[in-house]
Amino acid sequence: MLYTIATLHLLGLNLADRARTKLTSTPERGSETIEKVLWAGAIIVIVGAAVAIFRGYVQREAAKIQ
Predict the structure, then answer these.
(1) What are the TM regions of this chain, as residue ranges (predicted)?
(2) First and final C-alpha spacing in the chain
């Protein structure tokens, strides 16, 4: 019985070690892509806000001409 428990314990330790190695070998995998997507989204929002402000200003000034 003790042999079976020791074998199962070592099997569990081996699986945990393999999982830990697999998960920590590339901890930042994909973070660069996510960062680029977030920056692109931020730039799109900023440009959209600038366009909306500029368009509103132009329309307000055009209304004064008529």
Answers:
(1) 37-58
(2) 96
d(CA 63, CA 49) in angstroms, rounded, equals 21
DSSP annotation string for the chain: -HHHHHHHHHHHHHHHHHHHHHHHSSTTTTHHHHHHHHHHHHHHHHHHHHHHHHHHHHHHHHHHH-
At residue 29, the pLDDT reads: 66
Residues of the chain with pLDDT under 70: 26-30, 66
Query: Residue type at 10?
Result: L
